[in-house]
């Protein structure tokens, strides 16, 4: 689109330049013809004055120098206009050349930009195709990963529940062990006192038996040694 628009603008510019060149050539030809006409008129007046010199002077003869001067002035003016036109044409030609060079550079740049845009569009299309293919290839793997993640999450949830249950059981076991330790400690405190209580009880219930036993043991030293 940009290349076609630039080409159409270039064609229009060339056509306008051609029309301007034709008009300039016509103006140059007119100025040259006017200059030649003025020079010819001045020369013709001089010749006419020279021919009428020996004859009686006509009425227009006093105006001949003025007409000759005007013809020379007009000739000089047309010559100056021709030189100005030539210099302006040269300047316009230089400007036209520079404008044409700029236009050519712009056309080259626009063509490069269009080519770069087309290349970028092709690359984007290729990337889109690769992305779609890669997504299609990765969908099964993604589904599998999602399923495995769900399974792992469920397993972790069950493990957390089991850990909580084990924690409760450990706390119960600790409480039971603490209770058992307290009971055993109480039993250990009661065991040493039990023989003393039984001995005191035996002594209080059978006070008369102690002297008899002592005498029997004194009488039978062998029995005492055996005991």
TrEMBL record:
Region entry Disordered, spans: 197-217
Q: Which organism is it from?
A: Elliptochloris bilobata
Q: Which of UniProt's keywords are assigned here?
A: Membrane, Transmembrane, Transmembrane helix
Its recorded name reads Signal transduction histidine kinase dimerisation/phosphoacceptor domain-containing protein
Q: Where are the transmembrane segments?
A: 29-48, 60-81
